[in-house]
Amino acid sequence: PFASSLSPTSCCCTSFRASLLHSRILQRKMSDSAEARACFMKWKYSRHFTFLKQADKNITVICKQCPGEKKLSAAVSSTSNLLKHLTRQHRQSLLTTQKVSEGELKKMIAGYVVEEMLPLRTVESPSFRCILNKIPACGKKAALPDRKTFSTYLDKCYADMEMELKETFESLEYISTTADIWTSHNKSFLGMTAHWIDPSTFVRGHAALACERVRGRRTYVIGNEIEQVHSAYGLNSKVTATVTDNGSNFIKAFRMFQKSDSDEESEEDEEVTFTDVEQTLSTESEGQFSLPPHLRCASHTLNLIFHDVEKWLQANEAKFIYRSATSKCSAMWTKANCSSVASELVDNFFKKKLIVPVSTRWSSFHDALSRITDIPLAELNTVCTQFGIKCFTDREYLFLKEYCIVLKPLTVALDILQGEEHCYFGILLPTLEILMSRTLALQDELKLTASLPDIIAIKVRFSSMMDNKEAKLAAVTLPKFKLRWIREEEKKDMVRPMLTTECHHKNPANSTDDFFSFEEDDCTYSAETEVMEYLKSAGSELGVLSQFPRIKTISLYNTATPSSAPVERLFSLGNLVLTPRRNRLSSERFERLTLMRYNNFFKNNTAK
Questions:
Q1: This prediction's pTM
Q2: Hey, which residues does 73 pair with through a beta bridge?
Q3: pLDDT tops 50 at residue 272
Q4: What is the CATH number assigned to the segment(s) 175-260+287-296+563-607?
């Protein structure tokens, strides 16, 4: 049906698809070559060779010991050819112990202490120094660092890490951040992470920006600290959105300090006014900053849905069977967790352990119940009898089974939205659509919990997101989804022109070209044609977007993550750094150790 409309540009469609295929193949080859290089560098004799390239299942290297450029080949999975070459031609070099320079030794010590989250006093441990003395060093034997010297060296490494991040951010146009508040040892910390998509490789990148101590009135402090972190890394004009949980302190801070549309410059002529600069600079700074667009954590919203389910179970007529069934499960968890004899009995009888739920992850309660319902009722009651616990009735067992079936899609959606490496903002709406359809599809199969799917009110909890323009554009510009996640044709017909209109706004032609535009070029690749070609393309990888410049620009909406889970992972590391035995660690030192550990600074620099 689009043949007539595509005829003006049909001459370039074939070459367009060919270049698209070539781009995907090239991107795959680059990825394979990088993996082969990383694998080769782990070989203990890799220092004798320079990695050149990978071709199919073979790699090509240059021997550093041979005069000239002696090229050798070996299989990706085997280095036997290279080892034979060293044995025959450079036996003496093969047996020579590689010495470590003073700088390399310092970096290895720092990497060990930071990556393993050890106390800084480790460098003064006699047993640790004994190990270091056995490492052969180049030239004069360097003095081993004491704690104070080592702390100074870590400060230098942290400054290098900050500089590397700033250089990375300078080359990026769009970045998103996440933020959250964490309290430990009666201290509050603001954690922030940054997320981006490399415009050339489409690889997802992330880094921790802050884990700093916060004091004072939360609303203003949160807004001020977020703005300060963005400014420190030069991100104020690049942040597309900041993702936080649904806490009232964050919501209020963004409501008060978020930049509004009225702050944009007006195109109409305005009367010129003169301002007293000295008076302006001397006024109180509160309220002088602005925050980027705010996104609420989708995982936290799903958690609220689970609480809705809990309230329904406690108030509904099903509360009696729910309480009796879960109390028996709780008794089993307590017995198996507190008694080694009971734990061994479970292992021997079920050939697997029971999962004990934790209060911090509501999905763990579902996982724990699922493990119990995976056990046949007869075997389950046999163990209950040996534990001295009341046996499960058929009705209770069926209720738990249905409960797990209904909430299973919710837990799967939660795992998807809490991802990081391949998780984009555009995943949110397709995930919610599938979650709603799968949950409602279960309704006819349920007996005891038939009305439970109605309580999982996705549209109510995500009402502001369902009609969000940015969320729709983010989903459509993910090649994995495009328009496939939209079931109704009417909605597709609404989103398609929305994408086309946005492409018109992102026209790559500059104002000079527009000024000297005399007539329409028949070969011009219009926004309408680009949208149609994109929607018809078969690729599902992000690399496809390199062939669609306007849509690639619109994909900036995918920079954000759908949840604030990444910053919560930062706090998980913080718990391991700020242990009870290290609670006197200064806030600044704690932040630096945590950020270097989260960003894998020493691992990444060692690989280089």
A1: 0.78
A2: 60
A3: no
A4: 3.30.420.10
